[in-house]
Amino acid sequence: MSDQNEHKVIKGDTISVYYTGTLDDGSIFDSNVGKEPLKFKVGSGELIKGFDEGVVGMKAGEEKDVHIAAKDAYGEERKELVMDIPTEDFGGADIKVGMGVSTPDGHHGRVIGVGNKEIKVDFNSELAGKDLNFKIKVAKIEGQG
User: Fold this and answer.
1) Residue 17, CB-side half-sphere exposure with 13 Å CA sphere
2) What mean pLDDT value characterizes the chain?
3) Boundaries of every domain in the chain
4) For the domain bounded by 13-75+127-144, which CATH number is listed?
């Protein structure tokens, strides 16, 4: 069996990572640096495709920058996920642009327009259509489990 530090991440390994996610303009959209590492099974589909594939071949302690095209992240924005919902469906709540809303079946969206009879809600991920950049550091490789 090879030394833990020499093992390279392969699909099926459970690993823990630290990451910082940025958009192409440099703005940070998520980070767990200074917090608990993110633990996941590589290749299980728990994370976006580009992140999952980006860690393969890394060693414990290694840091890497990964650029993920929108199609391998949250996908392109889909026009069919922008919907006009009757105002009465909101039960008289004071709805404003930018608010997050959820459907009874658990879909999450954000309000992008408020009219007298309809509320325009975008159910695309806020990161849809965006290329993502991650600085990833492998904290631990637990091997296949």
Assistant:
1) 28
2) 92
3) 13-75+127-144, 79-122
4) 3.10.50.40
